[in-house]
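This section describes the prediction task in plain terms. A model, or a person checking by hand, is given the sequence of a single protein chain and must write out its three-dimensional structure as a string of tokens. No templates, partner chains or ligands are provided. The sample shown here is typical of the held-out split.
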Amino acid sequence: MRRMIGRGLLLAAFAVATFGAAQAQSDYPKRNITMIVPFAAGGPTDVVARIVSEHMSRTLGQTILIENVVGAGGTTGATRAARANNDGYTVIMGHMGTHAAAVALYANLAYRPDADFEPVGLAAGTPILILTKKDFPAKDLKEFVTYVKANNTKLNMAHAGVGSVSHTTCLLLSSILEVKPIAVPFNGTGPAMNALVGGQVDYMCDQIVNAVPQIQGGTIRAFAIGTPERSPVLPDVPTTTEAGLPQYQASAWNAVFAPKGTSKEVTQKLADALDKALDDPAVRKRLLDLGSDIPGKDRRGPQALGTLVKSEIDKWTPIIKANM
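The expected answer:
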């Protein structure tokens, strides 16, 4: 009898705990959510995060606070996110660098991008541009290639830190051109862009989100965009295929992840809020005006993002390892 009573009490306690957990999830979110951006404020990942999180906050009924955690090509912030409580109150706006390229770049990476996070959804694609300081001695991409090959050990190539999109996509460019310029790291894409505008560095590869105002203002130059089609926001910038370097195809992405073990219910609420943000005309206009590519319905959501991460790791690992 005592055993039966004891067992009954345990089952009752388990039922109460289960109900409490389910109730907590159904009430989510009850307080502010922190979205870690693993790069400096003002960079492309930060800009995308702020645009989509503003609308997501309205859908969820709680403010999403942006926390910029810089360092180690974004892996410092990604590590913090991976180790955060899996209650849905800490998420990260990761990207190609933190959740794909980092696998090859860091032998002792403190997290596994494809195993230590719950994918929430793809936020935006960001085509890559080949950019130079405004007085770079070339009039088009073919002349740029010739000049870089002849002077590569004297030229400074800026990037936002080892593992950043600007770093990995310029590794691809260096691989194609078979050059090894002087790589100059900065603490984020914003500072790297400022150095390019100021003429302290010669060239860089960067996401279109970060470069449109400077290109339109004439403070830097864009020789080509690494996508099959031109961008509507920069219609005069040719594709790499048009400009004579079809091998260079590069487009980054930004996506929301939660720590491993975050419940499916919470993850889906976040995914639904992101989906609504990407369908909102005002949000879409802001992203498109920056040159971003807004993913279609078939590329959104946790499952599609999980597949993307695995494919991107497979794509970038051999390229990076061959050029490190």
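For orientation: The beta strands are 33-37, 64-68, 90-95, 117-133, 156-159, 182-185, 203-207, 220-225, 251-259.
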